[in-house]
Amino acid sequence: MNKSRPWWQEAIGYQIYPRSFYDSNQDGVGDLNGIRLKLPHLHQLGVNLLWICPFFASPMDDYGYDVKDYYQVDPMFGTLEDFQALLKEAHSMGIRIIIDLVLNHTSDEHRWFMEARKNQYSKYHQYFIWKDPKKTDEGKILPPTNWRGYFSDSAWHYDDTVKQYYLKIFSKKMPDLNWENKSMRQDMYDVAKFWLDLGVDGFRLDALAHLAKDLTFSNSTLPVAADGLVLDASKFSSLPRVFDYLKEFKSEVLLKYPDILTIGEVGGGVSPDMSLQYIHPQNGYLNMVFNFDTCWENGAFGSDHKADHEIKTNVVQLKQNFMKWYQTVSPLASLPIYWLNHDHPRVVSQYGSIRYRQESATMLATTLLFLYGTPFIYNGEEIGMSNVDYEKLTQFKEVSALQYAKQASEKMDESTILRFLRRTSRVNARTPFQWNDQPFAGFSTVEPSLQVNGNYREVNLAKQQKDPKSIFNYYRKAIALRKKPKVMESVLTGPLSLVDPLNPDVFAYVHEGRPALLVVSNFRGFEVEFKMNRLINLVLLHNYPTIEKRGLNLILRPFETYLFEVE
User: Fold this and answer.
1) Domain 7-104+183-394+429-472 belongs to what topology?
2) Which of 35, 149, 449, 469 has the most crowded CB, counting CB atoms within 10 A?
3) Of residues 201, 206, 398, 505, which has the active-site annotation?
4) Active site residue 206
């Protein structure tokens, strides 16, 4: 490891959604002991940084992002001792762990919110954002503003007990915290210190961009929908006041733990320039930010009425998205690279192909792993897991999917809704990990809460471990190569540029390091000719058994990929 670099710049990250990773006590839900038991798999894969999604005590309205108690592990995931055992064992293998810290909201079953509802004059009432209703001439009550939340309905929910509305930009069971309240902020800092003192290596800070709200609480002037509501991110996303809160968080907590990694989730509305306000090494507050720019470049987002054949990766735009972040951020700060998490569809189904699962999954691995930044693989990506094959809407047991289906049923038939959810739903990434071809994919001996993808007999880890040419073994090889000191140095310090940036089918880039590295990836399910303008010294990685050329040009077969060492 290069001592002049922070450890996370050289790390290979891996995200775990605990409830669907591995069920150690056979109750149908993945748990912390399940992660601990599967650490040998992660070690064998070569990853050395785990981001684990929330496992705090929670009613599970939003699968753990609605926290009831920040100091307790939810019994479905185990105990605090289980987490400590996981942390200890991971550290002994050289694997660091960051956890999700949810700062924007709590559960409505959190002690603070229950106290807030009991007494309007208690300090806990001020921990949340309450407003009196508006009233029509007929006396009907209306929300304080026309803001729409991220789960399709109003950003406000009326509380009958308090006779006020509270702000909730996600589910009504997730009231937003009032970050203007100093006492609440201090309580949150204590939570962060508790987990850092326990030994976690940092945090992924959930929904971070939303901490600050438009404190005028005025209506949005954007055009409203038929229900009178409008989703206007400028009312509660990346407002300047966020940085005041983060400055305090940094001085009160983060500076006291200098070796930790902090990644803020800032969503789709933040530009690379804006991101530097969060992560600039001198006057920023965190180490990295997650944005969603590289996650939806195939037109699937909002594609309700499109047929499957109309969904096509915009390769030019995808390349430009990676490059604009690289060009702005890399001279100054660290960058995470990924195109899938627990909120997105499976990348093999988005940018790859089920028909060419082997070729496209290995192509995607090569393309991502050798870009500048800290790669994050999402659990299941290393075996080419794909979107669900569900046949019924009732199988999509997830709050935002069900909310969407309910609203869409007024204007679409069931098959159209089903097609859209199979393409875009968060459920796609949340089905149980496919360990083997046993019932329930070896995830559990009992039926899991989310149904296993029907392809698990063909697509599973046990089968791939035995096959030297499998997706899993390709990932192992690619990760081991990325970790080699010379390759790592070239990836992190060799200037990166696109080759043939306007090529609509091929994602090709070069690192001008020592050695110079060239990645060439065909993103299409058909043959493409690619003009080579560099002399090849070595083929370091390739996902087909033979090389095909026409003169100096490469003939790229469906989803073919190369990593070359070039002159």
Assistant:
1) TIM Barrel (3.20.20)
2) 35
3) 206
4) yes
